[in-house]
User: Fold this.
Amino acid sequence: MTARIIDGKTIAADLRGKVADSVHRLKRDRGIVPGIAVVLVGEDPASQVYVRTKSNMVASSGMNAYDRKLPANTREAELLEVIAALNADPAVNGILVQLPLPRQIDTHKVIAAIDPDKDVDGFHPLNVGRLSAGFPSLVPCTPLGCIMLAKSVQASFSDMEAVVIGRSNIVGKPVAQLLLAEHATVTIAHSRTRDLPALCRRADLLVAAAGRPEMVRGDWVKPGAIVIDVGINRVAGEGGKSKIVGDVAFAEAAQVAGAITPVPGGVGPMTIACLLLNTLRAACMQNGLSAPNF
Ligand code: NAP
Assistant:
């Protein structure tokens, strides 16, 4: 069997297009332009590239960007003041603080300081609680993207056994909550899980978010399964160059799976598209409008 490739680039472009259409209508009909503030502290090169990509996509969606770039030696109190100002600014509907933060700043304190209604990353404890309790909430972007990719293959997960490898607050736990909300039977695996290959072989839907290059081999995959590879791992490539691989040994797994996301070009592009969607939803909710559900 050769798996269907789940094309994250195309699905993300389609989602960004839908968001841009909604932003256009919101502006035309209500005079509302959603605004997002991405806060970057320091000069981490990977974060800078990521923030630049985000800013370009925010601009092309028709939203306003209120980005803040702060020096690496910014004190925690200064960052909290910036967040308080963004919380109070009605033009800003979404706030995202780029992680990781420099050592002198307590990440938990900063996340908790963001207005939960503007928390487009979905990391605020209130949104984490809302998600686990099944209340409407802003949902973390990468997990939301994973669900959309899986749904592009299978509309309902209700009779499916899902295994999520990884239990981080950013990916593993929220993915598991979203799958549970979609009626999958969910198992969360982590570094202490016994016989991970056998567990994975039971999965109709396998989400790999361990940050371990090509850990999931072809013989870990149940024939016909949907495989969502969240991993982004830089490894040595040919000719002394580096390359990006996922947590799944793609060539092997694609021989067994029913559908699989590539890396790059799978989950990655969905993350920013879902950030735009979350910002649009936040803007609608803050203005008493029903949030679009694509
Ligand atoms: P993380 O915080 O390091 O969490 C990794 C999780 O994987 C932990 O729960 C860990 O278990 C588990 N794990 C590690 N080694 C394992 C093993 N050998 N067997 C089973 N479980 C193992 O990472 P993260 O932030 O969730 O990110 C995971 C991956 O997704 C990374 O490659 C990251 O770059 C990528 N990512 C991609 C996007 C995107 O946009 N595509 C966004 C976010 C993250 P313990 O809890 O027991 O340590």
About this structure: Residues 142, 165-168, 170-172, 189-193, 196, 209-212, 215, 230-233, 267-268, 271 surround NAP (CB under 6 Å).
